[in-house]
């Protein structure tokens, strides 16, 4: 299987999976042409990317989290902002990192910090990837509590939202 590895330093390289096996709670990948630990070290923690054309077709109701990047999040009729990242944290649901779109003097300070919104079935009202919209019903106060910085993106993960 051919993949792209995006290293933490921003370097991107094509890799081919030669073998794989489970180890503790991880999956170890052996890449073609990488024979030593020192050759593999630059790939530790790299984001593995699969060309869109080679992704598996998903069952109805499932989505790739990478498809959410660039979608606009709404809480009811209120536009919250655009998804710029998806993270996995301590909870079960991935976190949508959403850049605040509100304007005005009061919002300038908060606009620097994105919101972290759980992509949980309980909050999801509708997912419309064609229109690049994620419609949610968020608990009162969630946005005020969860305005934080973001970091990593799992590009080709999947979850099953409720319709």
What is the secondary structure topology, with strand pairs?
Elements: E1 2-6, E2 12-23, E3 26-31, H1 37-40, E4 47-49, E5 63-64, E6 72-75, E7 78-87, E8 95-100, H2 105-111, E9 115-118, E10 124-128, E11 133-136, H3 142-145, E12 158-159
Helix content: under 10%
CATH T-level fold name of the largest domain? SH3 type barrels
Structural class: mainly beta
Question: Strand order, biggest sheet?
Answer: 9-8-7-6-11-10
Q: Give the CA-based shape.
A: elongated
What is this structure, in a nutshell?
The chain is mainly β and 163 residues long.
Description:
- The radius of gyration is 18 Å and the shape is elongated.
- The strands form three sheets. It has a six-stranded mixed β-sheet. Strands 3-2-1-4 form a four-stranded antiparallel β-sheet, with no helix packed on it. A two-stranded antiparallel sheet has the order 5-12.
- The chain starts with a strand and ends with a strand.
- It has helices at 37-40, 105-111, 142-145; strands at residues 2-6, 12-23, 26-31, 47-49, 63-64, 72-75, 78-87, 95-100, 115-118, 124-128, 133-136, 158-159.
- It folds into two domains: 2-54, no CATH class; 63-159, SH3 type barrels (Roll), CATH 2.30.30.
- The chain is built from three helices and twelve strands; from the N terminus they run βββαβββββαβββαβ.
- It is mainly beta.
- Helices cover 9% and strands 39% of the residues.
Name the features.
163 residues, mainly beta, SH3 type barrels, 2 domains, 4-stranded antiparallel β-sheet, 3 helices, 39% strand, disordered C terminus
